[in-house]
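pls design
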C-alpha cells in the first residue's frame, strides 16, 4: 500500500490538457455551453469549477460518454475516487470503446493500488486501438511506472 501511495505522489499523471484530446464526439461541445466551460476548467486544472460545470452539463445530457469521462477525470484529480469511478463506469457503459475513459479509469485503479484492474483496461485498449493510440501508450507507461515503484507488483511479473 505504501508503494501505491508513493506512486500516487511521484508518478507523472496525464496532463489535464490531454483530457480534452481524447474526446470522442466533438459535436457535443457545440450544443452544451456548460460542457465547453467545463472543458476549459479542466484545461486550467480548476477541478472544483470543472466538477460544477460538468455536473450541469451532465444534467442536460446524461447520455454523453465524454461528459462523464471528463467528470470522472475531474473528480479523480479532486481526490474523490468514488465519484470518479461512478462517472468513468457510466462513460464506459455508454461507450465501451471510449479510449479516454479506459485510460483514465486505469490510472485511477493504479492510484488505488489495483494493478489487475488497470491491466484489464490496458487490455481493452489494446483490442480497441487497432493501430497505436495515445491512450494505450499513456496507460502502459503509467502501469510500467507503477510496477517500477511497487515491490509487490514487481514480484508478480
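designed seq:
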Amino acid at each position: 500500500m505504501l508503494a501505491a501511495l508513493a506512486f500516487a505522489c511521484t508518478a507523472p499523471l496525464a496532463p489535464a490538457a490531454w483530457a480534452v484530446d481524447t474526446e470522442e464526439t466533438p459535436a457535443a461541445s457545440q450544443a452544451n455551453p456548460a460542457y465547453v466551460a467545463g472543458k476549459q476548467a479542466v484545461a486550467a486544472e480548476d477541478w472544483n469549477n470543472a466538477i460544477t460545470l460538468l455536473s450541469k452539463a451532465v444534467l442536460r445530457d446524461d447520455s454523453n460518454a465524454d461528459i462523464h469521462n471528463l467528470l470522472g477525470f475531474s473528480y479523480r484529480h479532486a481526490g474523490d475516487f468514488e465519484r470518479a469511478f461512478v462517472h468513468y463506469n457510466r462513460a464506459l457503459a455508454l461507450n465501451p470503446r471510449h479510449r479516454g475513459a479506459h485510460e483514465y479509469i486505469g490510472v485511477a485503479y493504479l492510484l488505488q493500488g489495483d494493478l489487475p484492474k488497470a491491466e484489464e483496461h490496458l487490455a481493452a485498449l489494446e483490442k480497441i486501438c487497432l493501430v497505436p493510440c495515445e491512450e494505450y501508450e499513456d496507460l502502459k507507461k503509467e502501469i510500467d511506472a507503477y510496477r517500477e515503484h511497487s515491490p509487490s507488483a514487481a514480484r508478480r511479473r
